[in-house]
Amino acid sequence: MNMQTKDDRDKFHRKPLQVKAAQQLLAAYGKPGPIETVPLEESDGRYLAEEIRAPHPFPRFRRSGMDGYAVRSEDTASAGSDRMVWLDVIDEIPCGSVSGKTITPGTAARIMTGAQVPEGADAVVMLEMTELREHGGRMQMGLKRSIEPGKNVTPIGFEVQEGEILLRPGRRIRAGEISVLASFGVHRVPVYRKPRIAIFSTGSELLTVDEPLQPGKIRNSNTYMLASQVREAGGEPFILEAVMDELPLAKAKVEKALQEYDAVVTSGGVSVGDYDIMGDFVRSGSVDMLYNKIAMRPGSVTTAAVKNGKLLFALSGNPGACFVGFELFVRPFIQQALGSEQPYLTEWTAVLDRDYTKVNAFTRYVRGSVEARDGVLYAIPAAVDESSVMVTIKDSDCLIVVPPAKEATPAGSKVNILMLKGNRL
Ligand SMILES: Nc1nc2c(c(=O)[nH]1)N[C@H]1C(S)=C(S)[C@@H](COP(=O)(O)OP(=O)(O)OC[C@H]3O[C@@H](n4cnc5c(N)ncnc54)[C@H](O)[C@@H]3O)O[C@H]1N2
Ligand code: MOO
Ligand SMILES: [Mg+2]
């Protein structure tokens, strides 16, 4: 039987840090950069690294909104149901062409949607409102309705003025942003390089996913789950081989990974057990420990340390705790490295759908699904949400934040939820 040592006493009496305080500690290390440029078609999902200003107004020319005729509105003033106004058609302007003619009194030009409205014209009449005839060897269009100035003409700069800021750094590039970039000719897009995150699990019980099961062993799921979370958060995951619960192995692996990658995420071995070597490692002095206990559940044993300005996130081995630890601490780091405007999970309010009976001294982050009923958001806690439970992670749209309470939280209570799915703003 082992005697209790000073180290044991240190690890048994850890001082828990609040989640927000831990996030603040970590924020000092989450700096955006470096910048790389990628082709526009590869920029989807990336984070813009430079401000984009409009080099020209948009639209850049007066644009027809209809297929029809470009006219001078004042020429149509006398048109009415019993009085047809006829105008000479002096040109035809397909999209992409610029007319060399000016619309003078008594004339019009046939024009297509998207084409540049010719000089002199200040309105476009849609084709369906007009008639066409040949008269004295000239083509004429007629209409029975007066047209107001500006009708069906999109003015220059209607959408964007020259010099206007269109996109700021840290903006996630999606379909709408890509449309902006393409419209202004940004074919090589400056983006923040994806932070390179090394991931490995610790645990002598771990098998690779393709190994047959053996007595007492389990397959390593956390590594792959974490890699998916890294990708979803905008980082680039690097899966390293899992290590046995032996301190020198883990120490060598972490130290090498910290040199080669932007951050290291491990799972397992952070509690107080005899083989919880990651806990021993962060207390060994080879890294500076930031914290080794958080006032939250699951994931109270979540640990972080720093070496040469680089972070080690030592997450719990319990899958549920590992998942939550990532979302609360690693995701913001990745998002900060991408210059994201909003690194933390978005907080919404919802109505708790059923009683949540567990009580705890720490804030709980309960996996739940979200449903909208009659415009009200309901949060439904997962049936089983123990830290060690893996299978309900897949069903969580959100984390329901249950503050420390001595009594159950009844159905109908207003709760804050952290959105996981559909959150990627
Ligand atoms: N005496 C105490 N025991 C425990 C405490 C405590 O305060 N006092 N805390 C409990 C809590 S809370 C948690 S959470 C766990 C944390 O455990 P560790 O982070 O040390 O993780 P391990 O011991 O390595 O593993 C825990 C559990 O998770 C499984 N595991 C580990 N790695 C993986 C992986 N890559 N993929 C899938 N599953 C994994 C492992 O087999 C264990 O079942 O400690 C409590 N104990
Ligand atoms: O770290 Mo443990 O999950 O608090 O459940
Ligand atoms: Mg353990």
Automatic annotation (TrEMBL):
Keyword terms: Magnesium, Metal-binding, Molybdenum, Molybdenum cofactor biosynthesis, Transferase
A Pfam family reported for this protein in Swiss-Prot or TrEMBL: MoCF_biosynth
Signal peptide: none
EC code: 2.10.1.1
Pathway membership: Cofactor biosynthesis; molybdopterin biosynthesis
Domain MoaB/Mog as annotated: residue spans: 198-336
Keyword Metal-binding: yes
Catalytic activity: adenylyl-molybdopterin + molybdate = Mo-molybdopterin + AMP + H(+)
The organism's place on the tree of life at top rank: Bacteria
EC main group: transferase
Cofactor(s) essential for the protein: Mg(2+)
Family membership: Belongs to the MoeA family.
Function: Catalyzes the insertion of molybdate into adenylated molybdopterin with the concomitant release of AMP.
Entries under NCBIfam families matching the protein: Glp_gephyrin (NF045515), molyb_syn (TIGR00177)
UniProt name for this protein: Molybdopterin molybdenumtransferase
Naturally occurring in which organism (per UniProt): Paenibacillus cookii
Top-level taxonomy: Bacteria, Bacillati, Bacillota, Bacilli, Bacillales
